[in-house]
Amino acid sequence: MRVILSKPRGFCAGVVRAIDIVELALKKYGPPVYVRHEIVHNKRVVEDLKAKGAVFVEELDGVPDGAHTVFSAHGVSQKIADVAESRNLPVIDATCPLVAKVHKEGQRYSADDFDIILIGHEGHPEVVGTMGRIPGQVYLVSSVDDVAKLKVSDPEKLAYVTQTTLSVDDTRDVIEALKSRFPAVVGPDVKDICYATQNRQTAVRDLVGQVDVLLVVGAQNSSNSNRLREIGAELDVPSYLIDDATALDKTWLEGVEAVGISAGASAPEALVQELIERLSEIAEIEVEEFDGINENVQFKLPDELRDVAA
């Protein structure tokens, strides 16, 4: 059985930076370091950091006074940031720089008296944080149908921004619907879409034509991981999202000659290697990597941790 690995897959630069921030904070300040929300959506990553002394909380009332606190890669609302400041919590912000860029774009449009349309998934931590960072009116849409139902106060003063874990392909139809219904709407250039999301989706689209089944390693609550599975299914290839190798069902492999593997942006490569090992126990396999984009993006660490990183 051929096992073909999608490229790129797994960790993006924002996830690497967020994990590094927690590990460096533990090194500099010692445990415990408190992290609001899962630093990234992956159980293995969270458990590994817990073992090193990170404590994960859903809200800041779970953080003791004076404790070093990390905001997750998804970003937080201004209200959360204000609460942390009012308590004088020493905060290290691990918000992905691309998410922070969306915040700034929304704030810039809002400062010019535009109402903001956010294209994203309701309830996703990044969406909650972004809506809470933009002052004024923010409308959330997820689909073309949402655009059709949208009621705005001034169609001449509208701007849109997007959740970073959506690709150009994911947002194209919604943006076209917005422009059709509200011709004056303005928004960022497509180059502002998260590079990692786009690259991983493009790689999966290229890969699925070569395989009989697609396995995506990633958390069930990971937006970008779910989308990778959906793309495979849309292209008529049986596709499954699994947390790790233990979730593999051997019946998925019956009659299969080629298996494709990808991984969401918050899934560590160790999980992919464990899945390959599991496949080797089921059948004799040949592993190859599909030709794809080489990513070399790196994001700067917060100033307060650069001395430890050095």
- In N-to-C order, the SSE pattern is EHEHEEHEHEHEHEHHEHEEHEH
What would CATH call the class of the largest domain? Alpha Beta
CATH T-level fold name of the largest domain: Cobalt-precorrin-4 Transmethylase, domain 1
- Number of DSSP strand runs: 12
CATH-defined superfamily of the largest domain? 4-hydroxy-3-methylbut-2-enyl diphosphate reductase, catalytic domain
Word description of this protein:
The protein is 39% helix and 16% strand. With 310 residues, the protein is α/β, with parallel strands linked by helices. It folds into 3 domains: 2-11 and 195-289, Cobalt-precorrin-4 Transmethylase, domain 1 (3-Layer(aba) Sandwich), CATH 3.40.1010.20; 13-96 and 299-309, Rossmann fold; 98-192, 4-hydroxy-3-methylbut-2-enyl diphosphate reductase, catalytic domain (Cobalt-precorrin-4 Transmethylase, domain 1, 3-Layer(aba) Sandwich). It has a 5-stranded parallel β-sheet. It has a 4-stranded parallel β-sheet with strand order 3-2-4-5. Strands 7-6-8 form a 3-stranded parallel β-sheet, with helices on both faces. The radius of gyration is 21 Å and the shape is flat. It starts with a strand and ends with a helix. The mean pLDDT is 96.
Please specify the SSE layout and strand pairing.
Layout: E1 2-5, H1 13-29, E2 33-36, H2 43-52, E3 54-57, E4 69-71, H3 78-86, E5 91-93, H4 97-111, E6 115-119, H5 125-131, E7 138-141, H6 144-149, E8 158-162, H7 168-181, H8 195-207, E9 213-217, H9 223-234, E10 239-242, E11 258-263, H10 269-282, E12 286-289, H11 306-309
Parallel strand pairs: 1-11, 1-12, 2-3, 2-4, 4-5, 6-7, 6-8, 9-10, 9-11
Helix pairs in contact: 8-9
